[in-house]
Batch of 4 targets.
Target 1
Amino acid sequence: MEILRATKTWQQAAAYYVRVQGMVKGFNIPLNKEFDEHDGPDTEYVVVLDKGFPIATCRIFKIDDETAKIERVVVLEEYRKNGTGRFLIEGAEEWIREKNYKKIVITSRDEAVGFYEKLGYVADYNKVDKGGVFTCIYTEKIL
């Protein structure tokens, strides 16, 4: 597996492919719900490639000068539970550290909170978002 920091259009297309396959097709999420105002030509994505094929992605969003948010985490179904998600998040964290952020936030689907906790994130069950497609729990990690 290989990590790709997707900043060019052709690389971002790989991120979009994974999101369409994993979320739009996999969870029947409408395109206009999966893609929002944070997706654009300047958006930073991390993509995991397996023999050149995109299999996982996330986007990095700046909250403030000290905090970055990892969003839209997607691993294609056939690549789940084999370390791909960990590889993806660790790749995103490395890029975030290089940018000198001090904290990372992830709003996790409720069933995935344990995955993030194993990676050092702390869940705050007082911050729950039920307004979207999934129920999401706020998690954070201090770098």
Note: The radius of gyration is 14 Å.
Target 2
Amino acid sequence: MAEVKSRATPLVEQGDIYFLYRPRVEADRVRGLDDVQRVYLLLRPKGARKYRLLIVGRKRLPDPGRHDRFWAFLYNVFRSRAALGEELGEVRYRTKTLGLREEPAARLIAEGVYALVRHGDHTHLTYALELPERPGPAERALNIRREASYIIAVKNPEAASPPAAGLDSEHEARFPSALRKRFRGRRFIPVETAGFLDHPGAELMLIGASEDPQKELGLEFKPDHETEHTADVLKDLGLPGETARRSLFQGQWA
């Protein structure tokens, strides 16, 4: 079983991480970022029956080398595979002007093992990939490295957001009192507890930190060696088999 060991830094949480994208409406074939509508991170904590679906604002991951700062938010927390599969699946709807429209199912592009790690006065979201075995054009376009870490901070819902950024008040997280007290008037704080990631609408800042988290944070990743025959991720997420295999095992747009 895949896991993360820490030699020096406290682990807040570990589990499986999945990277997905959803093509634009009516996109028959994705050839690059212009055909991508949305990019997701999906976290499945070890020992818990839940899936946290995050949306990354820039449609790619922050560059660790440039220390990019990207917004993300927790879209929803799913307690069953069926509910998650329904969310990630194909959606058909009718419009007055264009008739029946189709939103393609999400594509799984990479998967691996992750850990939330306390490091000094901040917290890292760090991961190592299991699949695909070699990076393809999709991983490169989305800035998905073999290993990487991002400083992860959560925004105080009571603090103002920059113009044209952040969620409106209707969709912001409703944190319980114990979590709200941790802000103490600050606009952002480290994700000190994974409880912040259990409330839809939680707004996050991801800052590219390192391409070598094992060395930087004293971690040891022990990912599983997965193949097309042993990986159960396709069944787990309920995604279309052939399309998912092209993207996950070959690193190709699909």
Note: The first helix runs from residue 81 to 88.
Target 3
Amino acid sequence: MNAAKLKRVLLKISGESLMGVDSYGIDVSTVDRVAKEISQVCKLGIEICLVIGAGNIFRGLSGAAAGMDRASADYMGMLATVMNSLAMQNSLERLGFQTRIQSAISMTEVCETYTRRRAIRHMEKNRIVIFAAGTGNPYFTTDTAAALRASEMDCDAIFKGTKVDGIYDKDPIEYKEANKFEKITYSEVLSKNLRVLDSSAVSLARDNNIPIIVFSIKENNGFLNILNGKGSYSVVEG
């Protein structure tokens, strides 16, 4: 990764990464740490937009598995992403950075409704844009929302911050013998059924030729290190 070649990127953060050491909810100190890393990348002159998951509050698929109507459960998950977005906005603005939340579900008392042209204009004015409420439709994950927004915003790359420092052939937390892919193609991710990203997101990124960089958001300065040519990560492209 070369920061000089990147004008605009999308950072996808899992909701679980905002829990810190807790098993549920939002840990403010963790959100502050992630916000500080985002601010460091902004200082490089790169335009940034964000998509944040909701797994720390509510996961629609789990709700459906427990017997809830899938569409209703997914809408609950979308609302949870707005809560996470508000927490991140608060942390970023306390650091002195202007932000805008744009929601795919209209809630004008809380944030803006998503508008592509307005979102692009915000980033051109060096504002950080946080896309909330997924795609606004049930049955789609926030991974897919990230790939969709990155395509609409004409982003140069998608950075996905997860619990691990890249893509492995099996869960490295459970299996010490897991092998890491430094580089892998979109087709290989799909054919090997590697679940670090959902298939719809990978297909959309492939169709729009947007590389996906998977790294650990738990590693201090993980986002910034990649842009400085350091760090540990996996790249999906080609």
Note: The chain has one domain: 3-236.
Target 4
Amino acid sequence: MSLETKITQDLKTAMKEKDQAALRSIRAIKAAILLQKTDGSGKVLDEAGEIKLLQKLVKQRKDSLDIYQKQSRDDLAQTEKEEIDIIERYLPQQMAAEELESFIKEIIGKVGATSMKDMGKVMGMANKELAGRADGKTISGVVKALLNN
């Protein structure tokens, strides 16, 4: 089942249940999909594109959440938390920290990276292979920690 079909079904369910947080989040996903489809590029939204789109939506909300927390706007921060939780339901299961670290160690071994100069090579390969299972910020942190040791 495509993401768009699942979103449409979940939107109907959220409307019936009068779940405002789910409605906001699902409508945001639906709007992002619609914008992607009508951007004029003619590209079809595949599974990797859907994951990237959802990750972008989560990242935007996490950035907003940080700002709201710094400004002590708990009401707005709560809204962002709710939306993050709902959007993350549509993403693949995220990797555990230990699993991520061992996977990145394998990539470092494949690439032959020895210092921070090789971070670009490692990040390129890691982002490609871990798409949807870990966010770029987490991958970057693990890569830096491993290359600095």
Note: The two ends are 44 Å apart (CA to CA).
